[in-house]
Amino acid sequence: MSMIAAFYGGKSILITGATGFMGKVLMEKLFRTSPDLKVIYILVRPKAGQTLQQRVFQILNSKLFEKVKEVCPNVHEKIRAIYADLNQNDFAISKEDMQELLSCTNIVFHCAATVRFDDPLRHAVQLNVTATQQLLLMASQMPKLEAFIHISTAFSNCNLEHIDEVIYPCPVEPKKIIDSMEWLDDSIIDEITPKLIGDRPNTYTYTKALGEMVVQQESGNLNIAIIRPSIVGATWQEPFPGWVDNLNGPSGLIIAAGRGFLRAIKATPMAVADLIPVDTVVNLTLAVGWYTAVHRPKSTLVYHCTSGNLNPCNWGKMGFQVLATFEKIPFERAFRRPYADFTTNNFMTQYWNAVSHRAPAIIYDFYLRLTGRKPRMTKLMNRLLRTVSMLEYFINRSWEWSTYNTEMLMSELSPEDQRVFNFDVRQLNWLEYIENYVLGVKKYLLKEDMAGIPEAKQHLKRLRNIHYLFNTALFLIAWRLLIARSQMARNVWFFIVSFCYKFLSYFRASSTLKV
């Protein structure tokens, strides 16, 4: 019997960010392993004309929850959706709902955050810092609360090369940042943002570091733990391999490369791609929730959920495997033959962007105009290149994260818990994982039918032939122009032709003598 699964039985659990990628997988795992839990409260804001109940219904009717319905048929009754807006004071939760949350909640999993790298500082502070502060205030008024688990990021201190499982201070106190956001206008905030974030690459990593400081300062007598996952990717094993439902991180790059939009990335091939499957993060999160509530550590423990120090995979190897998978499982309606090159040269990156990205997009938009359709490829390509440029910081560097607390926790688990809540990334086979990831992107993100693979392979073959034909024609035209202008080029050409002729003559003569 799993001690962790039994611990969550009969519990009332509050999850923020439950409608996000990780939040959904966290809910699924809880219902599947602890179907006798009492209730899961989720904070939801109506979206795109949908009511709270419609959003919950949409989540539960996805493929992700198919296994849950077998072990927990009344899962609809165990989810309590509460209207909330993390941009508002007290989250705009009604008095009745607030009273229920404060009096009943046993465990809090704070997963909500903005993960946009280019978010304005004001919005990033509100969601990643102020909302965390307000949730901690709520938690301090929960008499039945046993543990508060805060999901941060392994890149909150990416300005350091070696990162320990400790909370690092920021130069400016979080309270001062929160207060200043209330009276500074947007233009001044935009002006001081580069000075505030310092040597961090964006507002996301900076505000996540501030959020950790808030957790440390506002923890009081709460049992709190912080989990720092690295780049969160598709599921590894649970509930099935390859499930993904958003374009963040590698997923967007896989689609861009598979459709032929992305041809080159400014990246260091030997840099470690610290990718971590989402179900690994969820398993660690639930194990940390159990350990924090049962063992009550004297201080706030930080757990790194990373792969690079235990089972490293570099970007070059990962990119090669992605391209190899495209050959077996191509995407439908590819714009060009999938190909991606890694370069650390700024000039080469600019060249590729101009020649291999923007030029075909401009030509394609010209074709769309001629056929009376709205041009869209240039806009799409510019957006893609902006996204890639924001990722360059992370795909050109490697970090070392200590994992003492994570390894300690693993040693505390029973063999059954190590199996049911497995977060040992040393068991991960990267080649299988990446292939399942690409397949998952095709099935769950692009909604492509697997029956269309033969046709997609034929389309890929046509694109490959066009690619080779275009390159051959380009080479011959360039060489012809060079021969017409340069005597040295003509001499080289005649030497090559003469050498090939003599070699073929010698080969034929040798073959005749042998006969």
UniProtKB/TrEMBL annotation:
Cellular component annotations (GO), alphabetically ordered: peroxisomal membrane
Pfam families in UniProt = NAD_binding_4, Sterile
Q: Which residues form the Thioester reductase (TE) domain?
A: 15-284
* Start and end residues of each Fatty acyl-CoA reductase C-terminal domain: 357-448
* E.C. numbers: 1.2.1.84
**CDD domains under this entry?**
FAR-N_SDR_e, FAR_C
Decide whether keyword Cell membrane is in the record. no
Q: Which reaction does it catalyse?
A: octadecanoyl-CoA + 2 NADPH + 2 H(+) = octadecan-1-ol + 2 NADP(+) + CoA; an ultra-long-chain fatty acyl-CoA + 2 NADPH + 2 H(+) = an ultra long-chain primary fatty alcohol + 2 NADP(+) + CoA; 22-methyltricosanoyl-CoA + 2 NADPH + 2 H(+) = 22-methyltricosan-1-ol + 2 NADP(+) + CoA; triacontanoyl-CoA + 2 NADPH + 2 H(+) = triacontan-1-ol + 2 NADP(+) + CoA
Kindly state which keywords UniProt assigns to this record, in alphabetical order: Lipid biosynthesis, Lipid metabolism, Membrane, NADP, Oxidoreductase, Peroxisome, Transmembrane, Transmembrane helix
Main subcellular location: membrane
Q: What is its membrane topology?
A: Single-pass membrane protein
Q: Which GO terms describe its biological process?
A: wax biosynthetic process
Question: What are the transmembrane regions?
Answer: 466-483, 492-509
Under the heading PANTHER family, the entry gives: FATTY ACYL-COA REDUCTASE 2, MALE STERILITY PROTEIN 2-RELATED
Q: Which family does it belong to?
A: Belongs to the fatty acyl-CoA reductase family.
- Give the protein's function: Catalyzes the reduction of fatty acyl-CoA to fatty alcohols.
The protein, known as: Fatty acyl-CoA reductase
Q: What are the top taxonomic ranks of the organism?
A: Eukaryota, Metazoa, Chordata, Craniata, Vertebrata
